[in-house]
Specification:
Elements: H1 2-60, H2 62-75, E1 79-84, H3 85-88, H4 92-97, H5 101-106, E2 111-115, E3 122-129, E4 137-144, H6 146-197, H7 212-284, H8 289-317, E5 324-328, H9 329-346, E6 349-355, E7 362-366, H10 367-383, E8 389-400, E9 410-418, H11 449-459, E10 463-468, E11 473-480
Parallel strand pairs: 6-8
Antiparallel strand pairs: 1-4, 2-3, 3-4, 5-7, 8-9, 9-11, 10-11
């Protein structure tokens, strides 16, 4: 986990930074205090010596006083010498520090300066000595800072050791805490979310609710419960939608069936009249065996014709489940032609089919659904030509160019159904596939035919276009040649 290591090292570096800053200020404070103590000790020692030097100077003279100072410097732990104020003014160190030497000597105020030489850094403390002389003088006490360097080294080592110990101890505690309280819970949550992404909405074991991750775990489990309920609700609504769509399709079939039945009634009535007449002839020619056989054969053929017509109506009116199989589209169109022939004949409409030469017209489809598509479109074309005309179904191959050069072009079967019915008004084009939209008279249609046809073709992976042509309208169906999977 990248975030785990980022958080761990960020906290650890932050801790080390705080420790370093604390050690730096502590170190600076202790160095300052060390130097201050050196100056304080120098002033105390200097004043003790200055009193003795002053009395000797007054009683025995300058030479004895300087000899006493030299002896004290050799035997003692400090280095001391006599300096004159006027000579000290010209010192480079005094000039850099910008100290008013004359004022300090006149006011009998001690002062100190720091010599930062690489070989022997030291602190020089000056103690004025009040003498009955016009010329001011005093003691210069020098204290080496070499012990301070040793002290600084010890302080540095101590700081490093403390920082390392704190880093190890705190780092271990931090690592264990983050692992137990953050890393593992996050890994559990990530694993849970991956399972959710794969569709597994089972509720996971809840984390302890003593922090935000526990609350997040509870929220995710609550989300899973809600998603399960929503998924079941969507499944129920989807199944209800499918049932509704099937009912609408069946409603459209029954509507078309009523229209077809009116046209087929004449086709059935004619054979029935023939049967009735021939049966009377059989009765009248009871002794003529040859005439009886001839009339019986005619009756048998007319009954077969009626049975075939009724069987077509029954097949079309049934609601079979979706069954994908390899079907010949040209044959399905011809079957539909036979089914709607009475209606076409009644309105003096001629049905034509044109198939591209050497074209493969078989594919994996649901034949019953495609039959309904062709019935809906062809009946619309017939009803659009009350004074007769031609309806032409042409089947060709259409190549759809691929936008991705790495993928091959797609091959579609293009089925055009054109009529001579006057076309579709432009204002109605956008609503042509809208359910229950119709321009027919009341009772002449449900307004579901085109929307159902459009949905069925989409389920087959294709689409329908519509346009007006010179004499009427043209519906173009595109279906992938590979069909749909069973």
């Amino acid at each position: 986990m990248k975030i785990f290591y980022q958080l761990f090292f960020a906290l650890l570096l932050g801790l080390l930074f705080i420790i370093s800053v604390d050690h730096y200020f502590s170190y600076s404070e202790e160095v300052w205090q060390f130097e201050r103590d050196l100056v304080k000790n120098s002033i105390q020692d200097g004043r003790s010596i200055s009193g003795m030097i002053r009395h000797v100077w007054i009683d025995n003279g300058e030479q004895k006083a300087l000899e006493l100072l030299e002896d004290a410097s050799i035997e003692g732990r400090i280095k001391a010498r006599w300096v004159w104020a006027d000579e000290l003014v010209n010192s480079e160190v005094i000039k850099q520090e910008q100290i008013d030497v004359a004022a300090s000597f006149e006011s009998n105020s001690p002062f100190s300066v720091k010599l930062n030489t690489s070989e022997n850094p030291s602190i020089l403390t000056y103690i004025p000595v009040a003498l009955p002389l016009k010329r001011h003088g005093g003691l210069e006490i020098e204290q080496s800072l070499l012990p301070l360097k040793s002290y600084q080294k010890k302080m540095l080592i101590r700081s490093i050791v403390i920082s390392c110990v704190v880093a190890i101890v705190f780092g271990t505690i931090l690592y264990l805490y983050i692992t137990l309280k953050i890393r593992r819970p996050i890994e559990q949550l990530m694993d849970h979310t991956r399972r959710i992404g794969k569709g597994d909405l089972r509720v996971a074991e809840a984390l302890p609710k003593d922090n935000e991750l526990g609350l997040l775990s509870e929220t995710i489990n609550d989300m899973c419960s809600r998603l399960l309920i929503s998924r079941e609700k969507i499944k129920f609504e989807y199944e209800a939608r499918l049932q509704t769509i099937e009912k609408l399709r069946h409603t459209e079939q029954l509507s078309n069936l009523g229209i077809l039945a009116a046209g087929i009634a004449h086709e059935i009535g004619t054979p029935l009249n023939v049967i009735e007449g021939r049966s009377r002839m059989i009765t009248e020619a009871a002794g003529n065996h040859e005439s009886i056989c001839h009339n019986s054969d005619i009756i048998h053929k007319q009954c077969e014709k009626i049975s075939y017509t009724i069987r077509q109506l029954l097949d079309y009116s049934r609601r079979p489940k979706q069954q994908v199989a390899r079907e010949n589209i040209q044959f399905i169109v011809k079957q539909v032609f036979q089914l709607i022939y009475p209606l076409a004949k009644k309105q003096d409409v001629t049905l034509n089919i044109i198939v591209e030469e050497n074209m493969e017209t078989s594919m994996e489809v649901d034949g019953n659904q495609l039959q309904q598509v062709f019935v809906n479109l062809l009946m619309n074309s017939i009803q659009a030509m009350p004074h007769g005309g031609d309806v032409t179904v042409s089947m060709t191959t259409h190549i759809e160019k691929s936008q991705d050069i790495t993928k091959p072009d797609s091959t579609f079967m293009q089925i055009e159904i054109s009529d001579e019915g006057g076309g579709i008004e432009p204002k109605n084009m956008k609503d042509i596939f809208t359910p229950f939209f119709t321009t027919k008279a009341m009772g002449a249609g449900t307004g579901l035919g085109l929307s159902i046809a459009h949905e069925i073709i989409q389920e087959h992976g294709g689409w329908i276009n519509v346009r007006n042509v010179e004499k009427g309208s043209c519906f173009t169906i595109y279906m992938p040649m590979e069909g749909i999977k069973a």
